[in-house]
Amino acid sequence: MAKITIVGAGNVGATTTRVCAEKQLGEIVLIDIIEGVPQGKALDLMESAPLQYYDINIKGTNDYKDTEGSDVVVLTAGLARKPGMSREDLRDKNADIIKMVTENVIAGSPNCIMIVVSNPVDTMTFVAKKYSNLPKERIMGMAGLLDSTRFRHFISAELDVSHEDVDAMVLGLHGDDMVPLPRYATVSGISITELISADKIDAMVERTKKGGGEIVALLKTGSAYYAPGASVGVMVESIVRDSKRVVSCPAWLEGEYGLKDIFMGVPCVLGKNGIERILELKLTDEEQAHMNKSAEGVKKSIAELKV
Ligand code: NAD
Asked: CA torsion 219→222→226→230, rounded to 10°?
């Protein structure tokens, strides 16, 4: 059975734990810097096991010894946005936290596959790669799948059709300059450009780009966690079960899409070896220009890093 460590027992970490438990993906270790919180949430989740029907163990801890030998590590530690903040406003504080937790967790799990969630995620994945020294296949961010999922929900609501039949792909950085690709968004194989007017598609694209901010403005005390937790769960599942799902996620680029030396959202095949392939789509000039703009944002963020 796989061993999964989730670093950060806040909203995203606890929700991810629950999703992974319900999918019975493996033994889960939930670790946080605050004493009592991971233990309390782990116990609460174990006490719901008889009702939710999962038969795996969840251990809450503050001790990295308990994380040793993990197959998959998810980093959710750090600050979340409050209203009026951009993801970039979290950069310096979260970079210090990601450096610290990466060094702690990698010592006991040198061969893990790591999924970084903390924001700004494209930059934090860069920090985690630097301090884990993991090969590019074994480290990725979580973002594009979430952004695509938000886009899918808006399409489904607009057309009043099942979520199950709606697919979409969002590439680029996880921020206002992300790159939703409407011509690749489909309903049972039919492009949404055949079903929805250009104005309405533009409005949905804009809402997708600001999707995280819309929730922050409503919650006022933090950021989204149900859809983020569900997205991480799908990625962990694809790795643990070797199911080769195709999801957009920040991957280390070495020339794909004409970009290199950054993590940014591209379509990836996820399996037991981590990122097993990056799929390269033929983009229009306009889409490529948008990808390049996205990449400039990531490069600027990395250049300003202090760790
Ligand atoms: P939260 O405040 O609920 O939880 C963060 C947790 O991290 C807290 O429990 C805190 O104690 C813990 N933590 C802080 N420093 C730590 C350390 N050094 N070691 C271990 N744990 C530490 O926040 P959240 O809502 O769970 O969000 C977590 C992060 O995920 C934020 O940075 C947020 O912006 C990001 N996020 C990313 C996406 C995405 O799409 N990539 C989506 C949602 C949230």
From this structure: 150
Cβ partners under 8 Å of residue 244, min gap 6: 238, 269, 270, 271, 276
For the record, the structure tokens of 150 come out as: 């938000």
Return d(Cα 21, Cα 56) in angstroms, integer. Answer: 7
Decide: 95 in ligand 1 pocket, CB within 6 A.
Answer: no
pTM of the model: 0.98
Atom of ligand 1 nearest to the CA of 223: 25
Q: Does the C-beta of 101 come closer than 6 Å to ligand 1?
A: yes
pLDDT in tens, 47-63: 999 999 999 999 999 99
How remote is the CA of residue 118 from the centroid of ligand 1, in Å? 6
Give catalytic status of residue 174 as yes or no.
yes
Sheet holding 166-167, edge to edge: 166-167, 186-187, 190-191
CA dihedral (261, 264, 269, 270) positive or negative: positive
Tokens 């670093």 belong to: 7
